[in-house]
Protein: dTDP-4-dehydrorhamnose reductase
Organism: Aequorivita viscosa
Amino acid sequence: MKKILVTGANGQLGRCIKDASSRFPDFQFVFVSKEELNIEDLDSLNHFFNKHNFSHCINTAAYTNVEKAESEKERAFAINAEAVKNLASICNRNETVLLHVSTDYVFDGKKQSPYLETDDTNPINVYGSSKLKGEQYIQEVCDKFYIFRTSWLYSQYGHNFLKTILKYAHEGKSLTITTEQVGTPTNANDLANALLQSIAIDIEAYGIYHYSNSGESTWYGFAKAILQETGKLEDVKLAKTNHYRTFAKRPAYSVLDNAKATNALNLQQINWLKSLQSVLKNTVID
Ligand SMILES: NC(=O)C1=CN([C@@H]2O[C@H](COP(=O)(O)OP(=O)(O)OC[C@H]3O[C@@H](n4cnc5c(N)ncnc54)[C@H](OP(=O)(O)O)[C@@H]3O)[C@@H](O)[C@H]2O)C=CC1
Ligand SMILES: Cc1cn([C@H]2C[C@H](O)[C@@H](COP(=O)(O)OP(=O)(O)O[C@H]3O[C@@H](C)C(=O)[C@@H](O)[C@H]3O)O2)c(=O)[nH]c1=O
C-alpha cells in the first residue's frame, strides 16, 4: 500500500489534499502540520522517516509571503531552500518519492507565450529565488522527485486572492487591482487532485512539470470574475491600475504550458473560470 506523508498540512494546499484524499481510498495518508513536523528541524525529520515507511512525500510546507520575503530573505531561504534540501536528501535515503510544489515566480516574466519546463528561470523577487534554490537542491540530492510548478493558487482555505477580494467586497471597500501581470489563477483543489493522480498513475516519469488551470487572466480580470460570479460586481467599486505599489517585483507574464503533464502524467487541465465557478458553487468561503 502507498503511504503518503503530507507536510504543511494546515496550509491551503495541504487542506485541499486532505479533502481530495477521500477519493483515493487505496492510499494511506499521514498529514502533519508545522507544529507536528517542522521541516527545518533535521532531527524531527529523521525521526519521522525512521518511524514510518513512506512511499511518497508531498511537500506543501513553504514560506509563501511574497511581500514579506523581501525583508525576511533568510527565513524564506531557510524554509524554501535549506529545509527542502534536507527533506529531499532524507527522501532519497529512504527511497521515498518526493512530490514538491514550486511556482511560476521562478520566471522573470519576459516571455510572451506560455512557459515550458525547459525555459530559463530568472526569478525577480526573493520568494521566487528561494523557491528556485529549493528546486535546484532537489535535483542535486534526490533521484525520485516530481517538482510541480503552479501559479496563483486559491481555494476555500487559507489566505489567497479570492478570499481577499470577497473580504474587501464584504467590507464595502473600493478595489484597485493591477493589470500588470498576466497568469493563470489555479484552484488548489485541482492541484491537490492532480498530485494524487500522479501518484495513482504509478509510472516513474520523474522531473519538473507545470500544472495550472488553463487559460489566462490579469489579477484585475480574476477580481472582476470573482465579483461577477458572486453577484457583487454592481455593489463594489472596482478599478484597474497599472502601477499598484508593492515591495516585491512580480513577473509580468507567467502563464505555464501544461502539455508535458498532460502527455506524460495524463493530467487534464481545467479552465480557470470554470474551476472558479465550481469552488464558489460547491464550497463555503468564510
Ligand atoms: N499560494 C500560491 O499562490 C502559490 C503557492 N505555490 C506553492 O504551493 C505550495 C503550497 O502553497 P499554499 O498551500 O498556498 O501555502 P500556505 O502558506 O497556505 O501553506 C504553507 C504551509 O506550510 C507551513 N510551514 C511554513 N514553514 C514550515 C516549516 N518550517 N515546516 C512545516 N511547515 C511549514 C505554513 O505554516 P504557517 O502558515 O504557520 O507558517 C503553512 O501551513 C508552496 O510550496 C508554495 O510555494 C505555488 C504557486 C502559487
Ligand atoms: C490586495 C491587492 C493586490 N494587488 C496586486 C498585488 C499583486 O501584484 C497581485 C496579487 O497579489 P497577492 O498578494 O494576492 O498575490 P502574490 O503574493 O503575488 O501571489 C503569488 O503568491 C505566491 C505564493 C505564488 O507562488 C504566486 O504564484 C502567486 O500566487 O495583485 C492589487 O493590485 N490590488 C489589491 O488590492
